[in-house]
Write a structure and sequence with these properties.
The complex is a heterodimer of chains A (about 110) and B (about 110). Chain A is an all-beta fold. Helices cover about 0% and strands about 55% of the residues of chain A. With about 110 residues, chain B is mainly β. Classes of the chains: A mainly beta (about 110), B mainly beta (about 110).
């Protein structure tokens, strides 16, 4: 089976712009979670989707949003980018909600100038 | 709130030797999952080993094993016969079985010396 894929792998934006990141889970996986990784804050949970519904959300401002499509692919959107949004954004998929295994994609490296 | 603590920012081991990475966590739940993930320079998070809290037996995966002490809320990772390819950041993680909110420790950078 193909692993979790994320596009694009690298992205450079300027402050105030918005960005959309995409994640395709492993075939058959219906749960998708997003994480932000920064040197200062480490790995932080953003949100989790299952069957097109957001089930859980981390402590991030409303500028961070996401959605999941019927084929389980997920997108994450960040509006009005700030310098502090520069990070590695990781997507992970699971067969079921909060199951024992979660598989990560390679991440999208976002740089905000 | 559940927290995960890795008190060793950096560790070093000689090739072929054994090293133990420490992790403690705080939770009031009795059922949960614990994980060790490896993140090499490629930044791809790779699952190393998983432990279900209801299982008393410590999980093992080839050269990797854990020492799970539920009462002490301790979850250490032992890497035997260390190899150069083991060099990476290692993250300890906790997950509640009802919510998909995985909590990570700050990570331990492991260096393997030839």
């Amino acid at each position: 089976k193909a692993g979790v894929t994320q596009t694009p792998r690298y992205l450079i934006k300027t402050r105030g712009q918005q960005v959309t990141l995409s994640c395709s889970p492993i075939s058959g996986h219906r749960s998708v979670s997003w994480y932000q990784q920064t040197p200062g804050q480490g790995l932080q949970f953003l949100f989790e989707y299952f069957s097109e519904t957001q089930r859980n959300k981390g402590n991030f401002p409303g500028r961070f949003s996401g959605r999941q499509f019927s084929n389980s692919r997920s997108e994450m959107n960040v509006s009005t980018l700030e310098l502090g949004d520069s990070a590695l954004y990781l997507c992970a998929s699971s067969p079921v909600v909060a199951g024992p295994s979660q598989f990560f994609g390679p991440g999208t490296r976002l740089t905000v100038l | 709130a559940q927290t995960v603590t890795q008190s060793q920012p950096e560790m070093s081991v000689q090739e072929a030797e054994t090293v133990t990475l420490s992790c403690t966590y705080d939770t009031s739940e009795s059922d949960y999952y614990l994980f060790w993930y490896k993140q090499p320079p490629s930044r791809q998070m790779i699952l190393v080993i998983r432990q279900e809290a209801y299982k008393q037996q410590n999980a093992t995966e080839n050269r990797f094993s854990v020492n799970f002490q539920k009462a002490a809320k301790s979850f250490s990772l032992k890497i035997s016969d260390s190899q150069l390819g083991d060099a990476a950041m290692y993250f300890c993680a906790y997950r509640n079985p009802w919510w998909d909110d995985m909590r990570f420790g700050a990570g331990t950078r492991l260096t393997v010396k030839p």
